[in-house]
Backbone:
DNA sequence: CGGCGAGTTGATTTTCATCAAACACTGTGG
DNA sequence: CCACAGTGTTTGATGAAAATCAACTCGCCG
């Protein structure tokens, strides 16, 4: 390890990608685990020095991808697993009909590819929505990790359980809540996550680079209805979302108004 | 270990529970892991003799519960974890409004309580719908398992990944498919699972002890609409569901008619 | 300038929820 | 034996929520 690989986008989201890419191509030094900016966040559990050394060896490199890149593809066997260092993306499942379901948003600190590590293939795709920097691991090293570092194996299971918990909440929102509450729940939850990552600006809210279509696909609502629901929440002064930034002046009030039960993030392991 | 504990129902599903319970109370011999009927199924991966010995020690006993019993409670710290040996149940989340979302159905071979093992508490409940027999483990032994038996730790993570995958599919169904397809998807999936467990009778289909309300809560549909949708699928000769049995004469045709992508179960670990 | 992607808004149609009233079946007690 | 209450299923009538269709805006880029 020690170098960064740049991957070019294949889709239309970043039309001017090529030029930019070529300009930057080359091998840059990857960040050392001990300097990882994520580790400093309170959100994440502390590493022991020993764990740190192990992870450093486990890490095979870093990957920089542009907006629009498919990081992991549904149905494919991924040889690499990733932890998000910077940037955001969406995890989604495509249907034959051309529709898609956004299962979750991929934020810094998220581990990508647990399914690929366990079963043969991924059952959903991960696509970058902004440029992303990913910390890469070899899938085949996972077994070694289980044998030699049970603490880290435990953390992997934890990550899986956390995802299971989130999906359970999402399912409950889609199944039982009307559009307004559903939308409020999603934005509240994302806001809290971004806040915990230290991305909140005092007056400007948090960066929120998604399209309304992404949110609509996450909530199981049509684009038009999502738009009107957002307008309603805005009229209620609960939030604003413009120019790629989400502002929620009073998250507790939004939670209250949308019947979201509070669920503090608590320290979680970083992988 | 070696004895069975009988737990009494507290809710109204089994009005005559008390009498029955007292008659049966007492300590019966628990089944030995090596005689576990589930192990014989092709669905599950084989155990090595060593694994078998370990699991035998890990197991702390068996629990027999009646229909209506809450096996694990949302929000509570569960000191015990379980594998379902016999019987069925539902995993569900309750909302303040009195509504609930059924996240999944608990069938033989399912591991219950992964969340409790990892985080502090369960985020959903598990309730028995029929009498159930559960294989019990001590939560506090989990860490020992990670240190001493990485194979089994890996299997635990696998179980989490499988659940994640299922929830992703469920979310996609609720978010993107209309009532008819959603219903067809759910019944098709459950039929396949029950089939793999060897519960299919040649002409009588599979046992299906749930109420329409359970299915409605799983699909995010009203009871009435679920009923009408079932009537439609029945009129299309795709399935019948009566007297607690589900029959799907041609599962492939149902899958085709409801746009379900095929997903074979494949060997999975038993915990 | 024209074209494209993303957001916005109004009109119309469809799906699904709610309300209401039966029916079938079971166990219970008079 | 029959009335009854309770639970689960079924069906029809009505209304609300959300999808679809269509048009228009705005900013951006070639």
Residues:
């Amino acid at each position: 390890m020690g170098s960064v690989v740049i991957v070019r986008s294949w889709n239309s989201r970043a039309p001017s990608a090529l030029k930019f890419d070529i300009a930057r191509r080359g091998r840059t030094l990857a960040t050392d685990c001990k300097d990882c900016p994520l580790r400093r966040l309170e959100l994440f559990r502390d590493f022991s020095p020993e764990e740190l050394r192990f992870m450093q060896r486990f890490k095979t490199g870093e990957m920089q991808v542009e907006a629009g890149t498919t990081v992991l593809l549904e149905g494919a066997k991924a040889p690499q697993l990733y932890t998000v260092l910077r940037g955001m993306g969406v995890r989604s499942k495509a249907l034959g009909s051309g529709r898609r379901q956004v299962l979750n948003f991929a934020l810094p600190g998220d581990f990508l590819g647990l399914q690929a590590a366990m079963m043969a293939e991924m059952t959903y795709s991960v696509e970058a929505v902004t440029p992303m920097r990913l910390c890469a691991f070899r899938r085949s090293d996972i077994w070694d990790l289980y044998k030699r570092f049970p603490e880290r194996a435990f953390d992997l299971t934890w990550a899986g359980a956390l995802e299971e918990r989130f999906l359970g909440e999402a399912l409950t929102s889609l199944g039982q809540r009307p559009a307004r509450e559903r939308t409020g729940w999603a934005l509240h939850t994302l806001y809290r996550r971004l806040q915990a990552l230290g991305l909140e600006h005092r007056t400007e809210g948090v960066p929120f680079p998604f399209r309304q279509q992404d949110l609509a696909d996450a909530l199981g609502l049509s684009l038009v209805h999502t738009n009107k629901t957002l307008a309603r929440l805005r009229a209620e002064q609960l939030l604003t979302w413009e120019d790629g930034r989400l502002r929620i002046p009073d998250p507790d009030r939004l939670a209250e108004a949308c019947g979201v039960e509070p669920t503090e993030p608590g320290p979680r392991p970083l992988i």
Summary: Residues 4-166 of chain B form a domain with the Jelly Rolls fold (CATH 2.60.120.10). Chain B has a mean pLDDT of 89. The radius of gyration of chain B is 19 Å.
